[in-house]
Amino acid sequence: MTLTSQKAKVHPCDSRRPKPEASSRSTVVDVKTAGQVDKPTKRRNLEREEIDTFSHVASGVLGRVRLVRTNLLPPAADGMTVGRFVFLRGDRIHDRSSTLLAHELVHVRQFAELGAVKFFMVYLGSYFSNLVRLRNHRQAYLAIPLEVEARREADEWKKRRAQDADAADDGSADGH
Ligand SMILES: [Zn+2]
User: Fold this and answer.
1) How far apart, in whole angstroms, are the C-alpha atoms of residue 109 and residue 36?
2) How far does residue 167's CA lie from ligand 1's centre (Å)?
3) With 50 as the cut, is the pLDDT of residue 129 above it?
4) Which residues are in the CB-under-5-Å shell of ion ligand 1?
5) 84 CA to middle of ligand 1, Å?
6) How confident is the model at residue 111 (pLDDT cuts 50, 70, 90)?
7) What is the distance in angstroms between the CA of the first residue and the CA of the last residue of the chain?
8) CA distances from 14 to 8, 75, 122, 158 (A)
């Protein structure tokens, strides 16, 4: 964005002459950019590009999603969803195409479909009945149908994405 706007302002005839005005302007831009990088993102909505990327969940649902950076998660978890809020550990809030986020976004849709009360009832109900049956926390968690569905949809999304990337590579190879 910065490059394009600077390019547009420099006329070809002026390019050999030093331009103090242009260099001081670019310094200001650099300082601003550095300031933004230093300040970590705490909360954000999904960007338009991400709403297109995560096409396995309806855009109406994705438009309401709020990502929240936090380290207050169970030790084994890097992400957790409550309603439209997706809590992500550390720098994962910057990863715009992760399978983790694809998985959590399925949970956002499940919350929207079931409502929070029913989501927790179904989720915890399956967990505890699995725990009685399997006698193992991790296996009980993995067997929760809402988790099975989120894993399956995120995996399918990942496969489609890899196929699309392959197709795009083939396309550009043909073009050259
Ligand atoms: Zn999950």
Assistant:
1) 31
2) 30
3) yes
4) 147, 150
5) 14
6) very high
7) 27
8) 12, 58, 68, 48
Task: Give 26-50 pLDDT, tens digit per residue.
Answer: 444 444 444 455 567 899 999 999 9
Six token digits for residue 27 = 């310094």
Give residue 56 CA to ligand 1 midpoint distance, Å.
15
Tokens of 35: 């300031």
In the predicted structure, residue 57 carries a pLDDT above the cut 90: yes
Please tell me the distance between residue 164's alpha carbon and the centre of ligand 1 in angstroms.
25
